[in-house]
Structures are given as C-alpha cells and as structure tokens.
Amino acid sequence: GDVAVPDAVEYSGKTYEVTEIDREAFFGSNIQSVTMGDKVTRIGYRAFAYSSVVSAVIGKEVTIGDFAFYDCPRLTEVTIGNGEAPENYTYIGQSAFHHCTSLSSIVLGKSVRWIYPSAFYDCQNLKDDYCLGDYIWAAYGNIPYFERDLLDGMTLHVLPSTFFSYHPESDYLWSEYPWSEFKKTVIMESDELSWLEGRLHRK
Fold first, then answer.
1. Using one digit for the tens of pLDDT, what is the confidence trace for 161-190?
2. How far is Cα 154 from Cα 199, in angstroms, rounded to an integer?
3. How many angstroms separate the CA atoms of 59 and 57, rounded?
4. Is the peptide bond before 168 cis (omega within 30 degrees of 0)?
5. Of 50, 79, 97, 191, which shows the fewest CB atoms inside 10 Å?
6. Low-confidence ranges of the chain (pLDDT < 70)
7. How far apart are CA 195 and CA 202, in angstroms?
C-alpha cells in the first residue's frame, strides 16, 4: 500500500516527532509509494531496499543512508526536497538508488548538496535529471554517480540562473563530472517549471 510518514505520532499521551526511518524498516516490503515530510532527517541503511515501492517523495533536509533504496525494480520516480532554500543540506548516500532499473526521472531540490559514489548506478532507464540547486557536488569513488555510457541518453534539466554551473562547455570551476558528461543540458521552461511545482509540493 501507500505509506505517508507523519510529522509526529502520539504514544502514551505524549507526542513524538518522527525524525528517522530506521535501517531496514521497509526492507523487502510490498509498499507502493512513500511520502515523507520535512521532519524526517535521516533514512537508514537499506530502509527500503528490495521493496516494491514505485514512487518516493522525500523531504528537503535529509541524509539518505547507503543502499536506502537499493534494488527497487519497480521504482520509477524520485523527488528529493523542493524549490525552497534549506537551512540544512541533503546528502544522498552510496548506492542509495543503485540498480533501480525502472527509475526514469529524478528531481533534486535546492537542498541536495552531496551525492556519493554509485548513488544512481545501474539505473538503466534513467532519462531525466532535474536539478534545482545552485550546484550539487558529486563525490568520487570506484563506481561513479551515473554510468558514463548511460549519460549519452540522459537530459540534465537546470534553471536559467544555474545553467553555467552545469553546462559542459562552461569555464565555470564547478562544471565537472558527472555534469560535464551530459550530452544534453537544457534550461527548464515555464510549463516544465509548473509541472515540477506540482510534483515538488505533492503531499
């Protein structure tokens, strides 16, 4: 079924904020979708790995643990954060979405700052990467963020104000791998931004 992580729960007459999804909490489960608000600041190791989740909406200031969504073969879309400037940043851990073979689009909000090695490796159907932040640092490692041979068929969507941060022909200091490897970098237009707005604020 669908999982909506609440901001708070009541237990024995007390209210507790929900700030973390524990390691392997939904490991191998049959959930269809997961939506979590901005209170969740950490998603644990393999929290959703091997599950049947189809879509994930994740808050704007969260550390996504290593292998958090590893090998979710039905996962098609992921939205992380939104278009609002954060107080704290989001980190996407190593192999967080590794081998999500149906994943076709990802939206990385303004809070996303670091992506660790192999985070989206072997996502064979990934076609669209929407980046709303000024710049996202991609950490180096033995296995890259994306597979290089898949970048030819992917499109990097950026805001007009950040185009030269990502464009491969830019002399901007931060225009480096993986962003420099995208063959197609485009500026999002108004209709695309409207569509994104709906996706970013879906609850």
1. 888 777 656 555 444 567 777 888 899 987
2. 20
3. 7
4. no
5. 191
6. 139-144, 167-177, 198, 200-203
7. 11
Rounded Cα distance between 2 and 60, Å, is 20
Phi, psi of 186 (to 5 degrees): -125, 155
Length of the chain: 203
Q: Check if the beta carbon of residue 114 is closer than 8 Å to that of residue 86.
A: no
* Chain segment 25-45, per-residue pLDDT in tens: 999 999 999 999 889 999 999
Q: Which residue has the tokens 């709906």?
A: 198
Which is nearest to 77 in space by CA: 129, 38, 29?
A: 129
DSSP string, the chain: -EEEE-SEEEETTEEEE--EE-TTTTTT----EEEE-TT--EE-TTSSTT----EEEE-SS-EE-TTTTTT-TT--EEEES-SSPPSS-EEE-TTTTTT-TT--EEEE-TTEEEE-TTTTTT-TT--EEEE-SS--EE---SS-SS-GGGGGG-EEEE-GGGHHHH-TT---TT--TTGGG-SEEEE--HHHHHHHHHHHT--
110: left (phi over 0), alpha (psi -120 to 50) or beta: alpha
